[in-house]
Amino acid sequence: MQPDIIPNKRKSRSSRKERSQTQSPLLPGLPDELAISCLMWVARVEHPNMRLVCKRWNRLLSGNYYYSLRKKFGMAEEWVYVLKRDRDQKLSWYAFDPVNQLWKSLPPLPPEYSEAVGFGCAVLNGCYLYLFGGKDPVHGSMRRVVFYNARINKWLRAPDMLQKRHFFGSCVINNCLYVAGGECEGIQRTLRSAEVYDPNRNRWSCIAEMSTGMVPSIGVVHDGMWFLKGLNSHRQVVSEVYLPASKMWSTTGNEMVTGWRNPSISFGGWLYSADCRDGCKLKSLQ
């Protein structure tokens, strides 16, 4: 995950020039355009310290323009984010900087997620780490959605999901977040419902229901389709595929799904699956 840009109208060069004439320069003795060209070379690990220098630097690193330049010139740095659960069942997040070989702890999670189980995780817009749904030990299933903003190093709220659910399937297609199935307290424990979150509209919408309720165990987006496999309310193995183009679900029993038992990822048109029954091996399928 890396600090990316959010689509919006960029301020013109003239407006930035007019504004810079009424305030102190980013770097004394240099025009702001040249100063930004220098500052964008600073490593991402130093950005929190840069924000403390002055208000103008803080605004620069909180906006889109700085990171759009870093991305344009190939300077965006991707970090790895890892979730840890300790012996007391408390959750915490850490980020790993592969360039400098450094670990960095994220701010504490919102209270409702400090001991949650069965929630989903996804990255949208390249810089927002979302946590959604799940089950709180005290209050049960949740609709709650929070996200971590990598640029300002804070957890923030997002619109709640339409349905409480935990142990569900989730994926990202075209920068939209999809969730389906799972469980919820009540009469209808195993869910058929599905919904999608569009970050540009900042809202959740219902999509077609699956043909049967399912608690997914594995899922992957491959060849533009979302495959899910899990157990229905009778503890039978079921599998379905969602086609975004038609916005419909269908049952599937092709070769890929039949022998699918392990976490998988799709990359470059190939489906890779980890098989650790007899020593860890990586299987591939096109």
From TrEMBL:
Residues 30-70 form the F-box domain. Transmembrane segments: none annotated. The keyword Mitochondrion does not apply. SMART domains: FBOX, Kelch. It holds the Pfam family F-box. Keywords: Kelch repeat, Repeat. The keyword Repeat applies. This is F-box domain-containing protein. It comes from Panicum miliaceum.
